[in-house]
Amino acid sequence: MYPNAQEQGALQAAENLMHEIMARYDPSHDAFHVQRVRKTALLIARALSAQQPDLLVVELAALLHDVLDKKYVPETEAADPYGYFLPFFQSLSSEHGLDLISDGRARQIVKVVENVSWTTEKKLRSTGKLEEWHRICVELHCVQDADRLDAMGAFGIMRCAAYSAAVNRPLHAPPGRLDTAVQHFYDKLLHIQERLKTEPGKQMGAKRHQFMVDFLNAVENEYNAEALEVACTA
Q1: DSSP of 36-60
Q2: Cα–Cα distance for residue pair 15/160, rounded to 1 Å
Q3: Largest CA distance in the chain
Q4: Please, are residues 74 and 68 in contact by the beta-carbon 8 Å criterion?
Q5: Which of these, 25, 13, 123, 5, lies nearest to 66 by C-alpha position?
Q6: Which of 41, 43, 70 is nearest to 57 (CA)?
Q7: From CA 180, how far away is CA 169, in angstroms rounded?
């Protein structure tokens, strides 16, 4: 039965590390975001039981996926993810008797963490560097879809506003400005549905995508309310 005592110890250690590092991140990429991704990734993985995803790999990768987010850490820190996480994996062996280094799962977890990002996948795709592993790794797909689903729908809208506030990006502006939160929906968030990998992810994504479309329609209606009111009274 997953997780056993050793695995539970490893998960708690990963959670502690995540909380320690991400306490300084803004609310768009905080521990609550990570816990939502963790929950959704496991939900997807359990729905894909026929493909036998490694639940520990999925859950640890979900917990660690934003620890080295390049928006928040220096390039030097993010340059060698395996080297960064190696002391953590060594501690799992010494303190919890769980050797993920020898069985290769430590490298797999870090590889998933390195490849979850939308930007990373976009860059690999544009340069023709996507490998067969990217196409078939079910653990990667579970965490990717979970992370992307949290950028959609109601939470996606709140996270976009939170990050915009953190970097002082306008929420909305007159036509012509491309540096707004609303423009980010058209640049990225409305395209996420096209890149979901799993069937459970696609099913959840469809509803969240429509929620964003309805939200953007409401934004435009509210922005144009003054013009509509003038037209009605003319």
Answers
A1: HHHHHHHHHHHHTGGG---HHHHHH
A2: 24
A3: 77
A4: no
A5: 25
A6: 41
A7: 6
- The pLDDT of residue 175 is 86
DSSP the chain: --S-HHHHHHHHHHHHHHHHHHTTS-GGGSHHHHHHHHHHHHHHHHHTGGG---HHHHHHHHHHTTTT-TTTS-HHHHS-HHHHHHHHHHHHHHHH---TTTTSHHHHHHHHHHH--HHHHHHHHHTT---HHHHH-HHHHHHHHHHHHTTSHHHHHHHHHHHHHHTT--S--STT--SSHHHHHHHTGGGGGGG--SHHHHHHHHHHHHHHHHHHHHHHHHHTHHHHHHHHH-
AA letter at 221:
N
User: 11: which 2 tokens?
Assistant: 């998960």
Tokens found for residue 112: 């998933």
Give mean pLDDT in consecutive 10-residue pieces for the chain, a chain of 234 residues. 97 98 96 98 97 98 96 90 98 97 98 97 96 98 98 98 97 92 97 98 98 97 74 61
- The residue written with tokens 């069937």 in the block is 199
Q: How many residues does the chain have?
A: 234
CB atoms within 10 A of CB 17: 17
